[in-house]
Fold this sequence. Notes:
Largest sheet: 4 strands, antiparallel
Number of helices: 4
CATH superfamily: GTP cyclohydrolase I, C-terminal domain/NADPH-dependent 7-cyano-7-deazaguanine reductase, N-terminal domain
Structural class: alpha+beta
Distance between the termini: 16 Å
CATH class: Alpha Beta
Strand order of the largest sheet: 1-2-3-4
Helix content: 25-40%
Mean pLDDT: 95
CATH architecture: 2-Layer Sandwich
Radius of gyration: 15 Å
Amino acid sequence: xxxxxxxxxxxxxxxxxxxxxxxxxxxxxxxxxxxxxxxxxxxxxxxxxxxxxxxxxxxxxxxxxxxxxxxxxxxxxxxxxxxxxxxxxxxxxxxxxxxxxxxxxxxxxxxxxxxxxxxxxx
Length: 122
């Protein structure tokens, strides 16, 4: 199974349980893996139409993060996965990692994260 990886995309969103998170926003770092079964045809044809245009997927993710109105990063990850899978039927599975490096927690940490895997039903 071939995979396109879109790593460490940075956006500002308003996801969180606290009112300050919703009002002020904060950075989110998203990694998205797109899986194809069995291969990406563009590997052989070298044509953009034979692969998924990841610039469009980038915009889908960007818009989703910036427009999200939810409390949990788990919900944000699910919404991203649903939109990515709906974008192109060639995507058979996606893995979404949502990282919240400035989560409002007293203590030292690199990031709070959620990682989900979702498969296409088509």
